[in-house]
Amino acid sequence: MPDLSAVRAALKSQRIETPSWAYGNSGTRFKVFRQEGVPRDPFEKLDDAAQVHAATGAAPVVALHIPWDRVEDYGALRAYAEERGLRLGAINSNVFQDDDFKLGSVTNPDPVVRRKALGHLLECVDIMDATGSRDLKLWFSDGTNYPGQDDIAARQGRLAEALAAVYERLGADQRMLLEYKLFEPAFYATDVPDWGTSYAHCLKLGPKAQVVVDTGHHAPGTNIEFIVAFLLREGKLGGFDFNSRFYADDDLMVGAADPFQLFRIMHEVVKNGGLEPERGVAFMLDQCHNIEAKIPAIIRSVMNVQEATAKALLVDAGALAAAQSAGDVLEANAVLMDAYNTDVRPLLAEVRKEQGLHPDPMAAYRDSGWQQQIATGRVGGEQAGWGA
Ligand code: AOS
Ligand code: ZN
Ligand code: ZN
User: Fold this and answer.
1) 179 Cβ inside 6 Å of ligand 1
2) How far is residue 363's CA from residue 223's CA, in Å, rounded to a whole number?
3) Relative to the alpha carbon of 288, which ligand is closest?
4) CA within 20 to 30 Å of 374's CA: 51, 241, 314, 365, which one?
5) How many CA atoms, within 13 angstroms, populate the side-chain half-sphere of residue 371?
6) How far is the CA of 325 from the centre of ligand 3 (A)?
7) Which phi-psi region, left, alpha or beta, contains residue 127 (left: φ > 0; alpha: ψ -120 to 50)?
8) What is the 3-state composition of the chain as percent helix, strand, coil, each rounded to the nearest 5?
């Protein structure tokens, strides 16, 4: 049987990083549904993030996105976060919302455009110095729409060159996380379409370059937990962008579409040491809440990750290993399913109470009155973000 006090300790130490853009308005290519009380600037996003952390006790880190979170003084933003018990997390670069990047950013055939893209990435590292962020998250929309449009291999060379320049600029305690995505906005060939491409670049770059797995960025049926196990074994899993998908990059609440998949992923994380803080795996959310209330949706997402983690921690590792080495297929599967089928909500409620938190974070938020306060107090929230 798993040691329950170790399970509780692991649950208390897990940190989930929330994305600044999830607090602001977002939408699909068809419509942005604006919500009352959304933050008007990055400082107000931190105020909302502080509410998520107050309710869950597990979300003290907030990822930023440049330029959506551009401010005059990043030191002031950092101080503002710290005053609220938060810290600034991954800096997400943006080389996808500029007309110059129509044919690519760092892989663009035009060296002038490539230099501009690299300039932005290097600026993001400057910002990391000021915010105290450890991670630079790189997602490139680069790719081609038509066969023959550009030279696939040459684009890999241009990508490698830019990544090497960014790597050189990283400080001793900084990392770059290279995200992959199967398709969209490029539809024929994406330049970083899969974990293998990301892994190969990161391997060449060195230990400060790691792969980030966005759970919404795979073909249907992809065995994501295999990727997680492989990358952890190789010491190359930098973190997750958690979200749920039904079809493509849906960015729905993590654990909503397929809680069993999330459990399988967390099982590989637990089994391969990925929860240990020194492994540095960042548990980030990358979601947009287009039709549901944003702050409670983020709280629910944090809870969903915690529930999957709790179930994974409850796997009887000894029984599983014994069944596996005996070749007992049914027993091994049963051990895993027993953990998955455990209702961990009472355990998590107890763990929260031990931390002085409300046992039900959703109720804690509801009772806080924050939603009413921002609905009346914030007028004209229109922070830049997806679809805004
Ligand atoms: C885009 O599809 C990726 O998931 C990015 O990680 C992310 O959503 C974007 O860079 C926002 O910062
Ligand atoms: Zn992502
Ligand atoms: Zn995405």
Assistant:
1) yes
2) 35
3) 1
4) 241
5) 14
6) 38
7) alpha
8) 45, 10, 40
- Distance in angstroms (rounded) separating the CA atoms of residues 312 and 10: 11
Radius of gyration of the chain (CA): 21
27, 364 contact by CB (below 8 A): no
Give 377's contacts (C-beta < 8 A, 6+ positions apart): 37
Q: In one letter, which amino acid is 299?
A: I
All domains of the chain in start order, with CATH:
14-312 (3.20.20.150)
Which residues does the chain have with pLDDT short of 70? Answer: 381-388
* Ligand 1 close to Cβ of residue 190 (< 6 A): no
Please give the structure tokens belonging to residue 91: 């800096």
Compute CA distances 224 → 80, 236, 282, 330, 383, whole Å.
37, 15, 16, 22, 33
From the list 224, 134, 144, 131, the residue with the least C-alpha distance to 170 is: 134
Of 291, 315, 277, the C-alpha closest to 31 is 291
pLDDT digits (tens, 9 = 90+) for 361-377: 999 999 999 999 999 99
Q: Does the beta carbon of 139 lie inside 6 Å of ligand 1? A: yes
Q: What percent of the chain has pLDDT over 90?
A: 97
Q: Is the ipTM of this complex over 0.95?
A: yes
Contacts of 270 (CB under 8 A, 6+ apart): 10, 309, 312, 313, 315
Ligand nearest to the CA of 21: 1
Query: d(Cα 252, Cα 46) in Å, to the nearest integer?
Result: 21
Three-state DSSP class for residue 177: strand
Ligand 1 pocket member 44 (CB < 6 A)? no
Q: What is the pLDDT of residue 380?
A: 73
